[in-house]
Amino acid sequence: MIHTENLTKRFKTTLAVENLNLDIREGEVFGFLGPNGAGKTTTVRMLTCLIAPSSGSAVINGYPVGKQDTQIRRSVGILTETPGMYDNLSAEFNLEIYANLYEVKDPKGQVEKYLRMLGLWDRRMDEAGTFSKGMKQKLAIARALLHEPRILFLDEPTSALDPEAALLVREFIAELRKEGRTIFLCTHNLDEADRLCDRVGVFKTQLLALDTPARLRSQLFGRKVVFHLRRSDEALSVQVRSLSYVKDARIVDNKLLVTLDDPDEHNPEIIRMLVGAGAEIQFVGELRHSLEDVYMQLVASPK
Amino acid sequence: MHKIKTIIRKEWAEVFKNRMVLFTIIFMPLLLTALPLIILYATRDAGVGDMSAEMPAQIAQLCNDELSMGECFQVYMVSQFMIMFMMIPLFIPVNIAAYSVVGEKTTRSLEPLLATPITTAELLAGKNLASSIPAVVASWIGFAVFAVGAFLISGSPRLTAALLDPMWLLAILLVGPLLALLSVNFSIMVSSRVNDPRVAEQLSAVVILPLLALFFGQISGLVILNSKLILGIAAGLILLDGILIYLAIRLFERETILTRWK
């Protein structure tokens, strides 16, 4: 659905995007994570044919960027960083304009469908300028969907929204995912990416990492198992560390933290060893690193 | 064509909600229509005396053949201000078009608009027509009101016919729309390159200067307007409009507009 090869964008002396290689499958929700100024918006603009790449290539929905731009624009929907509605015009007329520009067969019907779906039908005659940020964002999402694109680019869809509005937008994105649309989600909300995305790419001018959130955690930090003990004993950690598959074992307070690759396989053996050594295990759990930890690790020290 | 119509509808819906623009579209034609009618009314009983000697030759010629000296003087006086009708298609589009691109920049609505399958030519054609049609229609209505008013004030079919000389019809019907296109494309060019609507409007207003020069040239007697000159102006405008339309499309660089705007 979205394929890029060494996609690069340079603005005079500034390198905004360097050799980006992506392969996003149909129906996938792909999170594009990066700090402000990382080049996320520039990438989206290149992939939606708003600006031309300096070098490299991209194919969207089978159409090469720079050669079949009109077909690409017809087949993708974009939610820009700011809603950019016509504030003096009604919500309904705002959408009708875009339905006509996208040559939608039943513009009125499509406008009604999405206004109802996003809970804006009752406010359809109100000027967009009177809407709250959350409502404007929903209106902008409706605009991006009017022509039923199979690929959707969402640039920071929940930024500047209050938690309630952000939740509504996230729930709507989850609905779109169920419909099998391919979603390219630019965000620096890591919790959002963790919940919604099948895979994430951490990006800062160049792609620093690309995988599922779970695998990224595992690759960067390994998997950690925490054994809650009635009493701590440093000797237990030494004993566990001696096992060949254990990467690290430490006692912190009354907890034994064990780092290893495959807890499902090796946990029973470790438990047997601890019980045999006289440890009283209260309960066992996995210590999960957040996507934020992954992100900070990659963005703060990319090399 | 469907997309062009959509852009026109959108532009008009926005523009006609702007009170300043609406005021300009209504007030200016009213003023420029009233002015020659007031002059016609004020000079209806004027004695001509020796002033006939100062009239341009072609008007003096008109006096001998068809009109009385008094009517001839009225034609001469009113003709000085007829050129102001040309101001309408020049000035109104500046107000509308100067906001057309800058306005989209300030509301950040340009990016989603450019992400649609609309071509630059379609977008600019829509903006061009949305700005020039109200101006041309306003000038034509103004001229029609003037024609009726002139007949009612003078009560003389000969005088009215002299005022509605084919030269002025040519100017209003042909040169007016060409001037509107000139004004719109110049404003769009300026609007694409600057970031402030006020700057766009002020810079675009420069387009009025050649017409003012023609007006003062006519009043001072340096320029004598006739059908030949009007046709020459029309030919020059067709060429200039072609160049400006080409330049407006070339200067409307989507990437520059999107990435340089902060």
Give a verbal description of the structure.
The complex is a heterodimer of chains A (303) and B (262). Chain A is α/β, with parallel strands linked by helices and 303 residues long. In chain A, strand 7, helix 6 (163-178) and strand 8 (182-187) form a beta-alpha-beta unit. In chain A, the strands form three sheets. A six-stranded mixed sheet of chain A has the order 6-7-8-3-9-10, with helices on both faces. In chain A, strands 2-1-4-5 form a four-stranded antiparallel sheet, covered by helices on one side. Chain A is 38% helix and 29% strand. The longest helix of chain A is centred in the middle third of the chain and has 16 residues, at 163-178. Chain A has eleven helices and 14 strands. Chain A has helices at 40-47, 69-75, 91-101, 107-117, 133-145, 163-178, 190-196, 213-221, 234-241, 263-276, 291-300, and strands spanning 2-11, 14-24, 29-33, 55-60, 63-64, 76-79, 151-155, 182-187, 199-204, 206-211, 223-229, 246-252, 255-260, 281-287. Chain B contains 13 helices and no strands. Chain B is elongated. Classes of the chains: A alpha/beta (303), B mainly alpha (262).
Biggest chain contact: A-B, 31 and 26 residues
Q: What is the residue-averaged pLDDT of chain B?
A: 80
Largest sheet of chain A: 6 strands, mixed
Which structural category fits the helices and strands of chain B? mainly alpha
Estimate the helix proportion of chain A, in percent: 25-40%
Ends distance of chain B: 32 Å
Structural class of chain A: alpha/beta
Total helical elements of chain A: 11
What overall geometry of chain A do the principal axes of the alpha carbons give? elongated
* H-E string of chain A: EEEHEEHEHHHEHEHEEHEHEEHEH
Terminus-to-terminus distance of chain A: 30 Å
Q: Extract low-pLDDT stretches of chain B.
A: none
**How many strand units of chain B?**
0
Global Rg of chain A: 24 Å
Low-pLDDT stretches of chain A are: none
- Summed over residues and divided by their number, the pLDDT of chain A gives a mean of 88
Tell me roughly what share of residues is in helical segments of chain B: over 70%
Topology of chain B as a string of helices (H) and strands (E): HHHHHHHHHHHHH
Bulk shape of chain B: elongated
Biggest pleated sheet of chain B = none
Q: Approximately what portion of the residues of chain A adopt beta-strand conformation?
A: 25-35%
